Here is the input.
Amino acid sequence: MDIVLIGGLWLNGSVWEGVASTLESLGHRPVPLTLPGQGDGAATATLDDQVAAVLAAVDAAPGRPMVVGHSAACALAWLAADRRPGRLAKVALIGGIPTPDGRPYADFFEVRDGVMPFPGWEPFQGPDAADLDEAARHELAAAAVPVPEAVARGVVRLSDERRYDVPVVVVCPEFTPAQAREWIDAGDVPELARAKHVDFADIDSGHWPMITKPAELARVLAAAAEGN
Here is the structure.
C-alpha cells in the first residue's frame, strides 16, 4: 500500500527516512512529503498549497493509500479525508488531532518576518521531548524550517461529511490511548467524536517517534495499513 507521510511543523520529508526504510522492508510504498514552505524554499506558501501537495500524492497513488499526519499535520491528513473520502483506505494521526472547521491550522507560536520559526525546546519540556537526547534536539532544531505565516494561520475548511466514514487510527506517543478516548468522549475532539471507525495504537515515545522510534512506528503504521 502507498503510505503518504506528512511531518508536522518545521519538518521536511527527510524526517521519515528511518520509518520509510522499515515500511519498504514490510512491503509498503512510503511517500514522504516535503510540503510547500517546509523545505522547498517557498516562503510564501499557503495552507491551500500544502493541502494541494497532499492531494497530489493521494491522486498519484495506484490504489487507495493511507495518509499519515504527525502533530499539526494531522489536520492535513484529515483535510485529505475531507477532499478525497472515497480514495483513502485510512488516516493515521500521530501525536495530534484534526483541527475543526473554521479554526486556524497551527497558530501556536510567535510569527516573525512572515514565518513561524521553531520556538526552542522550552514549550516541549516534559513527555514531548523526554526521549530526545541533546544531540537529537540539536539536530532537529538545526534542521527546522520556519513555517510560512499563511500556512500556520491559514483557516481549515471542512465540508464533506463522508470524511467521517474514513477509518482512523490514533497513534498515541506522549499520551495514552485511554487519554485520547477521554478527550474524544468529553467532546474535546469533535471531528473524531463523529468519525465512525476510530482505533488506537500506543507507542512508547515522545512527540517525535519518527526520530526516536522509527522502526517501531513503521510497524505500527504497517499494522494499521494491513488492518483494512
Q: What stands out?
A: Strands lie at 2-6, 29-33, 66-70, 90-94, 115-116, 147-148, 168-172, 198-202. The CA atoms of residues 203 and 216 lie 8 Å apart. Residues 47-60 form the longest helix (14 residues).
